[in-house]
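Dear colleague,

Thank you for sharing your sequence with our group. We've completed the structure prediction you requested, and as agreed, I am returning the results in plain text so they can be pasted directly into your records. Please verify that the sequence below matches your submission; if there's any discrepancy, let me know and we will rerun it promptly.
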Amino acid sequence: MVRAGHNLTPEYQVATGRRRISAQQEAPLRQLGIYTPDVIERQKWFAFWDAPLNIPGRPGGNAAVDLPRKPEEVGRAWAQFQITGCQVDTDGARLEANFPGVTLGLFTGGLRYTVYRGTNLLRQEVIAKTDAPSVAYKFVAGLKVSTSAPILAWYGAMSPAAGSTTCSAAT
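Please find the predicted structure tokens below.
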């Protein structure tokens, strides 16, 4: 058994909003006669002045169109962990422990820890998706020291020949 972490709890917070096209993008599209829903859908991802989390938003200039924003357009949530399993994979000097069962606001997916052989580096990430349209998001991530957190451990060799194995969370 190798202990990868002790008394650590992952923390993620996300803020989500709706992506809009900017006035700077809208004007030339209207002049060219191509201001259509399909074009808006593609071009809104290039908006620099959108600021989708600001309520009510500031109209004018290069601001987003379709303002003001409504408070219910912005969501804020902490990650909920209902871990349903664990899968460990090795790839050369890298070991990845994947834990499905994460909900982060509009997003669902899993938690992944990556450990790199010969280093003291630990990478933590939530890998998730959403089916909600036009979502802009901002997240904050960290590890909190907690005396009640389980110990993350894996059983098996860390070598390319090891392939996949299972891990456990022990208290």
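Summary note from our side: The helical segments are 23-31, 37-43.

Kind regards,
the structure core
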